[in-house]
Amino acid sequence: MMKKLSGISWRDFKALPLLEKGDYFQGTPPHTLIAQQFTREKLQELCALATRIKRINKRRDGANFLKTLLCDKRAMLYFAQPSSRTYLSHNAACQILGLDTMDVRDSKTSSEVKGESPEDTIRTFSSYADMIIMRHPVGGFAERVAWMLAHTNREIPVLNAGSGADQHPTQALLDIYTLERSFEKIGGVDGKNIVFVGDLMRGRTVRSLAWMLSLYKDVKLYFVAPEPLQIGQDILDLLDAAGTKYVVTQDFASTMPIADAIYMTRIQDEWDAEGESSTIDTSAFSIGAEHMDIIKDTTAIMHPLPRRKEISTDIDNDPRAVYWRQMRNGMWIRAALILTTFGRQDEVNQYYDNYKPGA
Ligand code: CP
Questions:
Q1: Three-state SS for 13?
Q2: Is 114 one of the annotated active-site residues of the chain?
Q3: DSSP readout, 173-227?
Q4: In this structure, which long-range contacts are made by residues 63-66, counting pairs with CB atoms below 8 Å and at least 24 apart in sequence?
Q5: Which of 200, 228, 237, 336: disulfide with 50, CB 3.0–4.6 Å?
């Protein structure tokens, strides 16, 4: 039976384990709030759709067709935290599908400064928009928004574009899409060694992606970080429950030769209470030209970006450095997600099957 957000109290919903929460986001409208709501089948559908959208969009007639699909919809981009890639790629994805967009990129420019509650602010957005794409510093706030809208007469889909230090599900989707594409000719993602490096404790992209990778067979995850910035026990517990193998280490060098993907992250010092991460020696958690002979010819070097010093610009043009492609992949997978959220994916699949635009 379909579980409805309108049929559960906030207190009961909040107390649910992550894997049970996902069941509440699949109804009408579907919400995208946590990595744990995805199945492998769903990931594969989205990746295939993203590639089809990308190919169709290459031709002018295809691009014009895509723009008709959601031209009757408006999206609200509410970004209460800074963003370049997530904001721009969602905006571009909306443009590809014909959605008009509106935005608030700084709560100081909304009536929140007059004392309006975040809940009332969101309810106001829902009066004008057909979808809310939101980034917020408070973990779980996107879930609260979806729950709150489910108790109004205007429940519209909510896409979590990054919440607190806990979830970044659409980043994880683009990371999965990048891994799928990078390993297309070498047996796919199953069985691969994925090495995460940097601030894993507060990196919401790693937390979401690590769980999504547990949907693949025989992947092994390596968490490489200074001890105070290591991955949270809550994620390790989820991996244990899924039977996914992992190693927790500070020894980056030992993981390099076996890595199929190296996922670098920056130190997330915006979450510091008193500048504590400046006292941690992070010099061993970076990659540069001196490492290119150690890693495999097929290793994908990834980063959600923005970067600081953890990836030397010296390797930007190495074919294994996929972080720029990874960023662009975000636009295609987010277009696939938005289209699916409105249930219009069959029209793209039909168009693709009829016209078969080239790769
Ligand atoms: N990867 C990512 O979330 O980048 P932005 O903060 O620039 O959106």
A1: helix
A2: yes
A3: HHHHHHHHHHTTTTT-STT-EEEEES--SS-HHHHHHHHHHTTSTT-EEEEE--G
A4: 63/96, 65/351, 66/96, 66/97, 66/98, 66/335, 66/348
A5: 336
359 pLDDT tier (thresholds 50, 70, 90): low
Alpha helix segments (H runs only) across 233-312 = 233-242, 252-255
**CA of 89, closest atom in ligand 1:** 8
Measured CA to CA, the distance from residue 220 to residue 245 in angstroms comes to: 5
How far apart are the C-alpha atoms of 49 and 37, rounded to whole Å? 18
pLDDT digits (tens, 9 = 90+) for 131-179: 999 999 999 999 999 999 999 999 999 999 999 989 999 999 999 999 9
Residues 337, 36: Cα–Cα separation, whole Å = 15
Q: Which of 232, 266, 257 is nearest to 246 (CA)?
A: 232
CA distance 203 to 206: 6
